[in-house]
Design a protein that fits this description.
Layout lengths: L3 H24 L9 H9 L5 H20 L10 H18 L8 H23 L7 H13 L3 H24 L7 H20 L1 H26 L5
Helix pairs in contact: 1-4, 1-5, 2-3, 2-7, 3-4, 3-6, 5-8, 6-7
């Protein structure tokens, strides 16, 4: 139990870093990340609603989808995804506000901004996943679809991301008659973030340490069991 608080703390830290990564990618003006593509297009269509607000509403749809798909298998603790959604969505607006001064103009600076944002997002994802506590709504709905369909999580994730991009592109043409908020950055994010996550998981010692917060109690139990099995009879 003593490791539970830091595990949730690192989860929240990962979510906060994720929000900054999404904002940084968006500020590159080359398109936002695939998971945020639909909310971003909606926010451009309705300026009265912030990027964070449309993200919150869209993620609530993900949570509702999980409830419908999983039924009794949707455990009550997963309702905490609503709090996670509120935190993530709010921090997107905070991050966008903090980056108000950052307006890259040349293509080179935009590309650098895009790649830096992808790395930041990957770091956030690695830290968020390592404690193995809650899931963000976007990941939760993919897991639910995977569980119900019997398809591999990675396979469902690819189809899910592609579907989001297609929807965002369709909405962009419907609302603006052209691509708006979707671009090469969306594709680059979809192709690179997962690879950056793999590198960070292997190279960043902090990730292994965070992951060990969950593993330590289990390892202690294994050690105790081995010790009891090796005890001489009668002791």
């Amino acid at each position: 139990m003593k490791h539970l608080a830091p595990r949730y703390g690192f989860f929240v830290l990962g979510v906060a870093i994720n929000s900054f990564g999404v904002a940084f990618i968006t500020k590159s003006a080359l398109g936002t990340s695939q998971i945020s593509s639909v909310p971003y297009v909606l926010s451009l269509w309705q300026p009265s609603m912030s990027f964070g607000m449309t993200t919150f509403l869209f993620n609530m749809l993900f949570i509702l989808t999980q409830i419908v798909l999983l039924k009794r298998d949707f455990h009550p603790i997963q309702f905490l995804q609503i709090a996670v959604n509120l935190l993530f969505s709010s921090l997107i607006d905070v991050s966008m506000a903090l980056l108000w001064f950052f307006q890259p103009e040349t293509l080179l600076v935009r590309l650098i901004s895009l790649l830096v944002g992808c790395v930041i997002l990957a770091v956030g994802i690695s830290i968020e996943v390592a404690p193995d506590t809650l899931v963000v709504p976007g990941e939760g709905v993919v897991r639910a679809i995977s569980q119900v369909s019997g398809k591999r999580f990675g396979t469902v994730k690819v189809y899910f991301d592609v579907t989001l991009i297609v929807i965002a592109v369709a909405l962009s043409f419907l609302f603006f008659g052209k691509l708006n908020g979707i671009g090469v950055g969306t594709v680059v994010s979809a192709l690179t973030v997962g690879k950056f996550v793999n590198i960070i998981d292997r190279r960043l010692p902090l990730i292994g340490w965070i992951r060990s917060l969950k593993e330590q109690p289990e390892k202690r139990e294994e050690i105790q069991e081995e010790a009891s099995e090796n005890q001489p009879a009668g002791i």
